[in-house]
Design goal:
two-stranded antiparallel ribbon, about 30% helix, Aminopeptidase, alpha/beta
Length: about 240
């Protein structure tokens, strides 16, 4: 189901509209997926589109292999103005969505968007942010996390993505920091302003693995689960800058 959750007047052209997609029934533990916080993070939006098409097919019954048992909500494109302007930030307000949370419904455009996204995802059990990777980390899709408790380690194992980076504490004004009561991670792939389809496909399969493991999805095929392998965990102090 596609739902309009916010409409904001803009000084140029049509008003800005924020949409949320929902699959599955309420009352189940919910997975929230957010992408498009920055206009140049194309990989996250491509991956979100791929997931939306997949979940539509599952719910409509045209995918013979899966049924949806839990609930998934998605904000596929948050910062539409920045995307349309072809830049990381929307030039008119110049606010970084990574610094806009928890937001303000009466504030600037980015603050109002942040407030709406947080309001609609705060009660979710799991959270995944999809983004393009930072420079020097774009060679492989990977998981980013601020903590490595048992629930996060299980999530990483379920995703079956090889590399996990534990970051230093980040500003409290980004979405991920606001999600610290949830079981949440950030998935990064490729470089800003480009699309890396093989890396997006790796993350797509990882998210499917996770949803099956947590019984959000039921795989109707009698396929023996692949042997779990422990992901490689990298602490921030293990990372060394290489200048070339």
């Amino acid at each position: 189901m596609k739902e309009k959750v916010l409409t904001i007047p803009t000084p140029f052209g049509a008003p800005l509209t924020l949409y949320k997609n929902t699959w599955g029934k309420s009352g189940n533990e919910t997975l929230a997926i957010v992408s498009g916080l920055h206009g140049d993070h194309l990989n996250g939006m491509v991956l979100s589109s791929r997931l939306s098409q997949f979940l539509d097919n599952v719910v409509e019954g045209s995918d013979p292999n899966y049924t949806l048992k839990g609930q998934v909500i998605s904000f596929p494109v948050v910062n539409l103005n920045a995307i349309q302007s072809g830049s990381r930030l929307w030039p008119y307000d110049g606010m970084d969505m990574g610094l806009a949370f928890p937001g303000n419904p009466q504030g600037e455009t980015s603050e109002a968007l942040a407030s709406a996204v947080l309001q609609h995802t705060a009660d979710s059990y799991w959270g995944i942010i999809l983004q393009s990777a930072l420079p020097h980390y774009e060679d492989a899709p990977h998981i980013q996390t601020l903590k490595l408790d048992g629930r996060i380690k299980k999530l990483c194992r379920d995703l079956k993505i090889e590399t996990v980076r534990k970051l230093n504490e980040s500003p409290k004004v980004n979405l991920y920091s606001q999600w610290q009561d949830m079981v949440a991670v950030t998935l990064s792939s490729g470089s800003p302003r480009t699309v890396n389809l093989p890396q997006c496909e790796t993350l797509f399969q990882g998210i499917i693995n996770f949803m099956v493991a947590e019984k959000i999805l039921k795989d109707k095929r009698k396929i023996k689960s692949a042997k779990n392998f422990p992901p490689r965990l990298y602490q921030s102090e293990d990372e060394v800058a290489v200048l070339a």
